[in-house]
Amino acid sequence: MVYFISCFLSLILNKIEMVLPSSLKTCLLLLFICLLNVSTISSKPLTNETVLFGGKFPALYVIGDSLVDSGNNNHLDTMAKSNFPPYGSDFEGGKPTGRFGNGKTIADYIAIYYELPLVPAYMGLSEEQKNNISTGINYASATCGIFPDTGKTVGECLSLSVQVDLFKETIDKNLKKMFKTQPELSKHLAESLFMTAIGVNDYSFFYNKTMDANDFANKLLHEFFIQIQRLHGLGARKFFINNLKPLGCYPNIIAHTVPRGRCDDDLNLAVSIYNAKLRRSLTYMKQKFSNTSFLYSDYFNFMLGLRGPSRNHASSNLLNTTSPCCPSVYDGGALTFCSANSSSCTMPDKHIFFDPFHPTHLANFMYAIGCFQERKICYVVRA
């Protein structure tokens, strides 16, 4: 339904482009966004559809990078922070939290869909808070990746293996206090949802076109599944696995392509090789581990769909798909996030990118619609 409404609105705007002032087109767009209330992605469907991936999870544990970081980097010695305006301008209360965008992340919308609280950042919790949280924790850290050294040139961050270490610490120091018996703890872990969204920074920091894309993907995937097996060994049984975004179409990359704004198809191809191997490997993992479930999220093609054909180097009338909201004038500099003194656009919801490396909350909301309502992005892996 949302897809057809979106297409209908786009058609109307295109038909009356010659007579409708641009300011009024913007107002219509914002009205459309307002109609897409967060309740649209409630786990209570309008029809008798079952909840995707079963639902009824007692907790959501988030492993990832800046796509889903909810504030861990606030507490680390790094340049990669987002705990200042204009970040968070459309979040609850309009306050920056450390999320790399103007509002909610895809992890937030996953929590909303499954009727769980938004998951707090591990590094921001006191020991007392950790001892009393049984609905999940977020360990994600901006700039980090699957390889242990990824992102370290920018400052401290929590690599994938460190995030799994912190989850083990959560079990040993906190969850074992809440669940008095091993069967109770095992039940909690087996029924909880473990989301991962990590790996694109490994391409950003280490991959170059002189490398063999297959070899790079194989090494990255090997390290990724070592940590998935560790999580399984700790008791995780339900995994929500995001593939990697089309890095070659993001503002920090297309600012340097010729013509400016065109996607880097070679870089996207390298990332897609990893994604294809990841998808096939999940089928193998499903067969290898009994009583273990995987949901595969095709974030790559979702963002590619929003962006449009790779040859596009100009935005559409409806959404700006090539330039970030912040900074409002982007020169393709090395930093892929806003600084405290960056100027930003006045209407982030006309953009799919909030900064050169991260989506707006509109894009994240559209992801949730595509995943949970239209079910065109997220698939349960079958053996």
* Largest sheet data: 5 strands, mixed
Q: Residue ranges: pLDDT <50 for 5 or more in a row?
A: 1-28, 34-40, 43-48
Please report the distance between the alpha carbons of the first and last residues. 31 Å
- Topology pattern, helix = H, strand = E: HHEHHHHEHHEHHEHEEHE
Oligomer: single chain
Provide a brief overview of the structure.
InterPro entries: GDSL, GDSL_esterase/lipase, SGNH_hydro_sf, SGNH_plant_lipase-like. The protein is α/β, with parallel strands linked by helices.
Q: Notable features of this structure?
A:
disordered N terminus; 12 helices; GDSL esterase/lipase At2g03980-like; alpha/beta; 383 residues; lipid metabolism
